[in-house]
Amino acid sequence: MPFASIRIITDDVDRLAAFYERVTGLTAVRPAPVFAQIGGGGATLAIASPATVAMLGDTLLAASNRSIIVEFEVADVDAEFARLESELTDVVLPPSTMPWGNRSALFHDPDGNLVNLFSRPAAPPARASGDA
C-alpha cells in the first residue's frame, strides 16, 4: 500500500499554501479554492479548508495539532534555514545536530504545526580492503 499524502486542515488555505510554497520552493496545485497540494519526492502535502471534511463533523479542528511533525529532507539544513529565517515567527530549534547524526531545524508553520528540515549524516568513506 503506497503512502499518498498528509492533509492539513486550515482556516486559511491561501496563507498556509503560500508558506509551504516558500518552504519547499514548489508551486501548490489549486484544483479548488478550498484545497491545495504540493507534491515532490514521493508523498503529497495537502492543505484544505474545513469545508472539505464537513461530512466528518467536528472530528478535525484547524490549527490544533500537537502530535505530528511535517518533515522535509534537504541537502543543507543551515542554508535552507537561513533562506527562511526572516519569515519564521516561531523557531523551536535552530539548526542543530541531533544525537543520531541528523542535522535538523524545527519551527512552527502559521497554524502551529511543527515543521522539521533535516539532512542525514554523510556516510563514512568505505574502507579499502586490507585496512584495519
From TrEMBL:
Keywords: Metal-binding. The keyword Zinc does not apply. Coiled coil: none annotated. Residues 2-120 form the VOC domain. The keyword Metal-binding applies. PANTHER family: METHYLMALONYL-COA EPIMERASE, RING-CLEAVING DIOXYGENASE-RELATED. It comes from Microbacterium jejuense. This is VOC family protein. It comes from the Bacteria.
